[in-house]
Amino acid sequence: MVTTGSGFADEREAMVERQILGRGITDPNILEAFRSVPREAFLDEQHRSLAYGDHPLPIAAGQTISQPYIVASMISAAEVKPGDIVLEVGAGSGYAAALMSRIASRVIAIERQPELVKIASERMRRLGYDNVEICEGDGTRGWPEEAPFDAILAAASGSHVPERWIEQLAEGGRIVMPVGKPGAVQQLVKITKSPAGNLISETLAAVRFVPLIGEEGWGDE
Ligand code: SAM
CATH number of 6-207: 3.40.630.30, 3.40.50.150, 3.30.300.20, 3.50.50.60? Predict the structure, then answer.
């Protein structure tokens, strides 16, 4: 297991202190995950020196790795905890999946871009995150083979919460996803399935994400 890249340990700790803890995220499991996963290892050579900046960065296939604070807020909102089975839609670089794998039992991360699936799968193997599975497909369909999920997080913004995610959510489970049009300001939404099966919906924050493209998302233009 690789936990520290060469020369980035101080920058990583400063990122945790200023961007995560400094903005009110205090869950020790989340802080420890951000301390242990080397963000620089999820970036290409060209962007590695910017790994601990307070912003998203480009990755392959014209996509992005999200801002660390946004990833931390989503993991916090989704109440990811030890023992959970988590579905992430929009694996991208694999960074968020790797972070959640430090807290949960297992993470299934779906990505629609084959190039990213290949890069992220190899990365997980190389870095030793063996409780993460990167799967290729349209994540708006969920991943019925591994359902039910305790938490479902989307790293791309849809028009609505896909019906299949609600079906594949465990009782007591949480969905956290951005909802809104591509290019516009979107709303980060949380849906909780009560033990009795009722759905509780909350709007958390204004965000900006790339589009969720698929059968229950936006079209691929
Ligand atoms: N979580 C990622 C990380 O840590 O690097 C960031 C992901 S990026 C903001 C959003 C990703 O969602 C893109 O890689 C995009 O290809 C993917 N995506 C969009 N629609 C999707 C869908 N229906 N199923 C799976 N992935 C999708």
Answer: 3.40.50.150
